[in-house]
Structure formats: C-alpha cells, structure tokens
Design goal:
The complex is a heterodimer. Chain A is of the alpha/beta class. Chain A has ten helices and ten strands. Classes of the chains: A alpha/beta, B alpha/beta.
Chain lengths: 292, 744
C-alpha cells in the first residue's frame, strides 16, 4: 500500500527530464531510491511502447539491452531503458560483485513501477515489457505485484531464477543472512550469489530480498500472469549447466510462449542478436495486430 | 746549423727510454685525467638528467593520481557512499581496496562530507598515520612528511552531485605513498630513487617541492665500470710500460750497449797501445754481427800487428838498402848525406874537428867504356873493399858517386887524416887490378878538406866543395894524388868562401849581369888566319872573375845551362856590336849539360845570320860526347849542317878513347895543353902525341894545339902536324880581338 502511495506521489512530484527523441531521463522512480536515469527514444505513437530492463547489476548501457532498444527504435517503436539505481544515485556503471549491495528487490520493483508510471504519464498506454535475465524475473515480480492496464505483454529473455542450491546459494549464507536480519546494524557480508562466488558484498536484507525468486516461483508466476507472456531462451545458455536443460521444458509447460533460439547464449550475442530482434519484432507485430 | 754532440750509447739509450716512458706516462696521465673529466661530466649530466627525470616523474605521478581522483569522483559507489554513508566503514575497509579504483600505493582513501568532515570519523576515529585527518585542510594537494617511514602525498578532489552539477556532495581524499607511487608510474634511469628524500618533515606545499627534495643520480654502472677499467688500464699500462722499459733497457743493453761498450773499450785499447797485441773480449755477443765485428777487429788487429812487424822489418831492410850501396855493400850517398847533416846539426852543441875526405878513380869513365861496365864494377868493388880494410874499424866508408867514395872523420888531426889518406891510396895502388884484366895502371885521387872544432858551422858547410876543389887539384896534379885543402890559400878557396864573388857569379847566371867575353886568337899555321876563342869573365868595379871561380860556383849550383845562355847572349851582342869584325871567326864553349838540352839548336838560331861573315865554332868537351854519343851526334850534325863548326876541347886531358875518333861529329880537335906540353918531354911521348896528331889529321879533323907559349912549343906543334895553334905566344885573351902577327 505504502509503495503504491509513494509511487503515486512521485508521479506528480517527479520532474522528468526533457523527453526528446534520444534522451537520458533522470527520474526518481521510487521514493526509497535515489535519482535514476533511463534512455528514452520516442517512436511511432501508434506502435506499442517498449520498456526494456537490464539484467543483474547491469545498466541500460548493457549491450544486449542497448541493441534491442536501438533495433526497436529503428523499427519505430518508442522505447525506454531504465537503469535500476541499486541505491546509487544516477547509476550509470554496472555494480561489481564486491560492491556494497544494500539495494533490495522491492526497491527495484518500485523503481520499475515508477518507470511504467513515467511512461503512462508520457502518454504511452500500450506498453510491452521486455526483460533480460534477472530483469525478466523482476518484471515478472513487478507484474505479479501490480499489473497496470497499460502493460500489454511481457517478453522475457533468458529467464531463470535467483535462488537454488544448483545456483550456488549456500545454506550457511542463508543462515547467516537470516541471523543478521535479526540484528540491528549488522555488517555486510560476502555471499555466494549467482556468478558472485563468495564475493557478493551485501547486507543481509539486500541478499535475502532477492532469494525469493526461486525456480518454482518463476514457473508459478508465469502461470499467474494475466498478460500475454513470451519467453525467449537461447539453447546454448550456460546457465543450463546449473539449472538443467529441463528448465526449458518447465517453461514450456507454463502459459508463456516459449521461443528457443538455437545456438544462442545467455546474451544472444553475435548473429543471434538479429534472431532475437526478429522474434521480438514478430511478437510486437502480433500484439499490434491483436490490439487492432 | 745545429751541431750534434756525441753521447755514450748508454746515455742515449737511457735518454730515449726515459723519453719514451715520459711520453707514455704523459699519454696515460692525459687519458686518466680525461677519463676523470668525462666521469665528472657524466655525473653532472646524470644529476641534471636525474633532476629532470624526478620532476617529470612527479608531474606524471601527480597527473595519474589526479586522473584517478577524477575517476573516483565519478564512481557510482563514491556517490552512493556520500549520499548513503550508512555502510561507509564497510565500504571503505572491504570494498574500496578490492576495487580497481584503489591503487596499491594508496595509503588510504577517505570520503569527506561537503563540510569536509571524514565520513567515518564518528564511527571510528583514525590517527594521522595515513595522512588523512578527520577534517580536510584547505589545500587540495600537499606532501606530508613523517619520518622515518612515511612520506605521503595527499590529494583531495570534490565530488559534485550528478543531478545538480554545482551541488557539492563531498570530497574524495587519498594519501599516497609518494615513493611507491613514483616507482609505480615511472621508470628511473638516472635518479637513484632509494636516495630520494625530503630534507624536512611536516606539511609541504607543492611550490616548496624544489627546495625540500633531495636526490642523487644513479651511478652509471657503465660509466663507473668504464672508469674503473680506465683506471686499471692506466695503472696497468704504466706498470707495464715501466716493466717493458726495464726489459727493453736490459735487452738493448745486453744486445747492443754491452757489445758496443766492450768493442769501444777494445778499440780504445787498440788505439792507446797500437803496437801491442791486445786480446779481444772473450765473452760471446748474442748478435752475430757484433760477434763478427769483434772477431774481425781481432783479426784485423792481428793482421795489423803482423803487417806492422813486417813493415818494420821491411823498413829496416829498406833503410839498410836505401843507405847501402848494393854493389860494394858500403854506405851510399843517402847515408852520407844523413851523416853529414847530422854532423852539421850536432856541431853547434858538440863541435868536433871534422875531416872531409873524398876519393875517386882517375879516368874511370874511360876504363868503364874500354873494359865494360862489369869490369868497371869490379874495379869499384875492389876499391871499396880495399878502402874498408884500410880504414880503422868502425869508420864508415860511403860511396857517393860512380867511382867516388867519401869518409867523414871526427876528432882527427890533419896529420892523422893525411896519413889515413896516404894509407888508403897506398893500399889502392897496391891492389892487383891486373887480376881484372886491366892493363893500364889505375890511379886514384884524394881530396881533403878540414875544419877544426872552433870554426863555426858555416865553415863546415863548405867542406864538401873544398874537398871537391882539392880533388880537382889532385886529379890535375902530376905529382901528388892527395890534395889537402887546408894547406892552400889560393883563389879557388877564396872564390868559394868569398860571398861577394859567389853573389856576383850567381847574379850573372840569372841575369847575365857582368858577363863579358875575352877573345884569344887561334891561328892557322898555314894561312895565318885567326879566329878567336871567347873566354868568359865577370867584371865588377874592382876585379875580373876568372873561369876557374866562375865554373866552380856554376857547377856547384848546377847553373851551367843558364850561364851558357848568358854567355851566348853576350857573344851575340858582341857580334851585333861588331866587336868581332866581319871575317873574324869565333869559338864559344858549351857545358856538357847545355849540350844535352833539346833546345840547343834553337840557342844558335840567332847566330845563323852571322855565319856568312863569321866562322862560328862550338867547343864541347869529350866527356859529354862520349857519354851521350848518339843524342849529341844528332844535334851536332844538325848544327854542322847549318854551317857551325864543332870543336872537341881539351882532347887528352881525360881518357879519350881512340875508337870514337873516326865517328865524332866534330870538325876540330883541340889538344889539351898537357898534351901540347908533353911534346917537349921524352921522345916516346912525343912520338905518341905526334902519331895521335897525325891520326887526327888523317881522319880529316883540324887540329888545334893549346898552350903554345914558347917558340919551341910552336915548332914542336908544327912538327906534330897542328893546323891551328893557341897560346900566349899568339896572344892572351883580350876584350878586343887582336890578330897576332905572322906565326906560320
């Protein structure tokens, strides 16, 4: 409730930057977050607006994100690629594993909501969300919490989850984190988290907040989603070594429309960028046709 | 021009060696000092380069630190910490040092709030070891020198709010280990970073940097090593040079100096003792040429000694030979001259009575011609041998001419000399010369002169001539064959001792001054025609000088040719002056030497014009004619062909050989007065003379008899067959030719 109120308030108090065709937008997307920034490219107003969210600790400068934005902008779509602040004012650099992580999943979700609101406030009522990697999970979490009417679809790319022993999450870390949560002013610790092996310096609150996104929760949320959902996966993603290739099967069993690009890795690098774009373009065209 | 002075080889070697060593040492010292200068310059340049390098490194380092600070101020996490410093302590202590922003040479990184308070100061106050105090100073860059270990550079940069460019968020401050940072960002080639230090502690502003930084240049290992090598080289070269010089001196001394000195010493000894056998150095020289030279010198010396010995022997032999008459083995003319010269020289200091005795064989030439030279030699040898036996032992006998012997007698009285002369003559006369198949009686004449020790040496000098005169007297004396000059006081001796007469005769020979001719008639017994014999006189204001004095001096000084020329000149003048009237003939005497002159014919050329009006007769003596018959015959015949007549004078005074008569190139034979006077002796002699005269007449010669002083002699001459007569009876010599009365 407080989150929603704060978002509402911010909607009115936030002073968006100039929204030129290719602008960097400074915007405090959430009351509990510092000033954030996003890349905003205006396109055809008759086409859906696309919000693309970066992955874990990355920014909107991340190549996969930026490529997708550029290609969609070329196709005439209005796009916004926000950078989650992770509690860094106007963050424009990726955080390292050993950076001090105090941000929480909820703060991220609040910022996502704030950016959706920002789009709506700027007249975009047909919005398609595209997430990459953990950005997909966060968009999914955000939509599960609240699905604005302007959101017409969710396209998840390289969708996985954050918690699971197969991902390196250690029970002892969880115990420590939970123990710290009980203590005031607990010192940050280094945890195992995703690719940050034993050097993810985070407060317990931060660390634990993201661990809610586990395998089952993702499958479950996909099924709970009220929107058209598309999931694009690379068949050569290295994460399958941790989560198993059956993850694709599990996804396929959900309501999401699973698209697998053969040979693509986690970032759809090289020639698979075009394939990814082609798939997204086809989804958007399909959504446009359905909307019409 | 520089005059070089000789130096001993040792000195030369030492001088050259010292000079060489000096030059080498000078070069070494020059090299040493040059190397030292280069070393100093390298050090100075290294200091300069080190200073440049230091401040360039400081600039570079500070720029790098400033760049790092700038990046820090733009780092998201710095912005995050300045805005949400809740976990700043953990971030600073755990995160920052793991980030790429944190450099290894950072001592500390701190964030400060906009009001310049350290973010962490409330949480955990820190000291000032890291240099970052709780509150920021007002300067953004400075040095904090904290001996002994911490010399820090502090840099501070403001961080501005990204949303509000002018909104100050806070500050980033870092303290840097200055030396580590310098080393991290720079490489030093000249600066010795270990020696870099600040000369004082505390806070040092940037503008004070020049004053407080002290540094040293890295010692250039190449330069230092090179310098060490140069030093070693110089010292080693010097030592080697000295050692080499000593070796060279030793070797040169052994090879050259020692042999040279040894040979030089050897040569000096040879020079100092030229007549002694000097042993060559016994040691062996290394150099073959020196050894050869030594041996050659020894051989040469040996040969020289041998040659000297041989030469001495030869000299002795030669001295003996040169002073010994090979025919008679008595001393010769040279020995006599030396003995006479020595006697004269010694007479001044040790005067002695001196007797000068000469002896010769009468008519030896004729004997020689008649019996041959071999017989003549035998006569001489026999005479010498006899005389040697006659003389006291030790009294040397000299053969001073063909048949002439001489004896010098010291400390003999005149009587002793005369007795000795008589003994010699007696022994000679007693010698059986018939053994040599000589039929004639061989006689000898002895002339003696004498001077006592009180007389000056000048008196001794005339003894030879006095002896000659005495000999002449003895030869011409029919009674005494020994003539002692000391017993006479006559004109002969006077003429010789009279320097006035001597000077006048010599002057006449050279200039013709005083020469005058007196003419004595020679008359034909048939036609009474006369011609005149020109007899020479010398005139001065006081007296006349007669031929005996004149020719004695002329012969002594060997001026016969010159004097004859002057006489002929006077005769020519008389002819021109018509002292001799046309038709008056004249005869003139020539010496034997003049007769042998090649220009004899030329002498008479001026007389040719007078031959038409004057009968000119040239009188010669038989001695020269016989001795040089062929040469003289040719010349005389030439003169005869020109119209001159030739007369053989004094025939019979010598040992005239009859065998020459048939071929003599003469027209007239003049009997010597001794023959003419002999007509008045015994019949046998008279008949021989008459037969001789007849023979001469038969041979076609005109015959002149001299010495006709009485009518008896005139008649005897007529009976004997003389064609011409000459003598006081017809007229004495007169300066004006006077024709006598009828004589036929």
């Amino acid at each position: 409730m407080w989150l929603r109120i704060s978002i509402m308030c911010l909607t009115f108090i936030a002073v968006p930057a100039q929204s030129n065709k290719n602008d960097i937008i400074h915007f405090q997307a959430s009351a509990d977050s510092p000033l954030a920034q996003a890349r905003y490219i205006k396109g055809d107003p008759n086409k859906p607006t696309v919000l693309i969210l970066h992955g874990f600790l990355a920014t909107h400068h991340f190549s996969t994100v930026q490529t997708m934005q550029d290609q969609l902008s070329f196709d005439g779509y209005t796009s916004l690629t926000p950078t989650l602040t992770l509690q860094v004012p106007l963050r424009n650099q990726s955080l390292n594993c050993n950076s001090l992580h105090t941000h929480t999943l909820q703060q991220d979700l609040n910022e996502i909501q704030g950016w959706i609101k920002w789009l709506e406030n700027h007249g975009h009522q047909h919005i398609v969300l595209i997430g990459h990697s953990s950005g997909s999970q966060q968009l999914l979490e955000a939509l599960i919490q609240h699905t604005p009417a302007s959101i017409k679809a969710l396209i998840s790319t390289s969708l996985f989850y954050l918690n699971g022993e197969e991902l390196g999450i250690r029970q002892q870390d969880l115990q420590i984190a939970h123990q710290q949560l009980k203590q005031p002013h607990a010192e940050p610790q280094k945890f195992n988290f995703l690719y940050c092996q034993q050097d993810y310096l985070a407060t317990a609150e931060s660390y634990v907040s993201y661990l809610v996104i586990n395998r089952q929760r993702v499958i479950q949320q996909l099924n709970q989603l009220k929107l058209p959902s598309y999931t694009i996966m690379g068949s050569a993603d290295s994460r399958y070594q941790l989560v198993g290739k059956e993850w694709l099967g599990e996804l396929a069993k959900t309501t999401t429309n699973l698209i697998t690009i053969e040979g693509a890795n986690h970032f759809f690098a090289h020639q698979h960028e075009a394939t990814l774009h082609q798939q997204i373009q086809q989804i958007l065209v399909g959504l446009e046709a359905a909307h019409d | 021009m520089i005059k070089l002075r000789s130096m001993p080889a040792t000195h030369t070697l030492l001088t050259l060696t010292l000079l060489g060593i000096s030059v080498l040492l000078a070069i070494n010292l020059t090299l040493y000092f040059k190397g030292q200068t280069v070393q100093r310059e390298v050090h100075a340049n290294a200091e300069i380069e080190a200073q440049k390098e230091l401040f360039a490194a400081i600039d570079n380092t500070l720029q790098m630190i400033d760049l790092q600070l700038t990046k820090l101020t733009e780092w998201d996490e710095v912005h995050q910490q300045l805005q949400q410093p809740s976990y700043y302590f953990y971030w600073r202590d755990q995160r920052i040092k793991e980030s790429l922003y944190y450099q290894t040479y950072y001592e500390q990184l701190e964030l400060y709030s906009a009001d310049k308070f350290k973010l962490s100061h409330l949480k955990k106050p820190s000291g000032t070891v890291s240099g970052l105090t709780d509150t920021l100073p007002n300067v953004s860059r400075f040095f904090l020198i904290q001996p002994p270990n911490k010399d820090l550079f502090i840099a501070i940069k403001p961080v501005y709010d990204r949303a509000q460019p002018h909104g100050l968020l806070g500050y980033v401050a870092i303290s840097v280990d200055f030396y580590t940072a310098l080393r991290h960002h720079n490489q030093f080639y000249y600066l010795n970073i270990q020696e870099l230090h600040f000369n004082r502690s505390g806070l040092i502003q940037m503008h004070q940097l020049n004053e407080v930084l002290e540094f040293k240049a890295i010692s250039n290992p190449v330069s230092d090593h090179l310098w060490q090598l140069i030093q070693q080289f110089v010292f080693q070269l010097s030592a080697f040079s000295l050692f080499a010089a000593l070796i060279i001196i030793w070797v040169l001394t052994l090879l050259f100096i020692w042999p040279l000195r040894s040979l030089s010493h050897y040569l000096s000894r040879l020079r100092e003792q030229p007549n002694q056998t000097i042993t060559a150095p016994k040691h062996t020289f290394i150099i073959e040429e020196f050894e050869s030279l030594k041996n050659q010198l020894a051989d040469y010396h040996q040969a020289l000694i041998q040659a000297q010995t041989d030469l001495n022997e030869k000299n002795t032999q030669l001295w003996q030979l040169s002073r010994q008459d090979p025919l008679t083995n008595v001393l010769n003319r040279r020995a006599f001259d030396e003995a006479w010269k020595t006697l004269l020289q010694n007479h001044v200091e040790t005067p002695n009575n001196v007797g000068y005795l000469i002896l010769d064989c009468d008519h030896f030439k004729a004997l020689n011609d008649s019996y041959g030279h071999q017989t003549g030699d035998e006569i001489i040898k026999a005479a010498a041998k006899t005389l040697q036996h006659s003389l006291p032992k030790g009294l040397p006998l000299y053969r001073i001419g063909g048949d002439e012997f001489a004896i010098l007698l010291k400390d003999y009285t005149p009587n002793q000399i005369e007795q000795l002369a008589q003994k010699c003559l007696a022994d000679l006369l007693a010698y059986p010369f018939q053994q040599l198949d000589v039929k004639e009686k061989i006689c000898f004449s002895i002339g003696i002169s004498y001077a006592n020790k009180k007389q000056p040496v000048e008196h001794l000098a005339v003894l030879p001539r006095q002896a000659d005169i005495s000999m002449y007297k003895a030869k011409h004396s029919p009674h005494s064959k020994i003539h002692f000059y000391q017993h006479e006081v006559d004109t002969d001796s006077q003429s010789l001792v009279s320097s006035q007469i001597l000077n006048q005769v010599l002057a006449a020979a050279h200039t013709g001054h005083g020469v005058c001719l007196h003419y004595q008639p020679i008359c034909n017994l048939v036609s009474n025609e006369c011609y005149f014999e020109a007899l020479v006189r010398l005139t001065n204001e006081q007296q006349l000088i007669y031929p005996l004095d004149i020719f004695t001096i002329i012969a002594h000084h060997r001026l016969e040719v010159e004097f004859d020329q002057k006489v002929l000149k006077q005769l020519l003048q008389d002819l021109r002056n018509q002292v001799l009237k046309p038709g008056q003939g004249v005869s003139v005497n020539l010496s034997g030497k003049t007769l042998l002159q090649p220009f004899l014919v030329d002498l008479f050329e001026p007389f040719l014009p007078f031959l038409t009006q004057h009968k000119i007769v040239i009188e010669i003596t038989e001695t020269v004619l016989i001795d040089h018959f062929n040469e003289v015959s040719f010349t005389l015949n030439k003169l005869r062909r020109q119209g001159f007549l030739i007369a053989l004078d004094d025939f019979g005074s010598g040992y005239s050989s009859i065998r020459y008569l048939a071929h003599m190139p003469v027209d007239i034979i003049k009997f010597d007065l001794s023959l003419t006077h002999a007509l008045n002796s015994d019949d046998k002699t008279k008949h021989i003379i008459e037969a001789t005269a007849n023979m001469i007449r038969q041979a076609g010669y005109e015959l002149v008899m001299e010495g006709i002083e009485t009518p008896l002699l005139l008649n005897l001459a007529k009976q004997a067959g003389a064609t011409y007569i000459q003598g006081y009876l017809m007229g004495k010599p007169n300066i004006q030719p006077q024709t006598p009365g009828l004589v036929a």
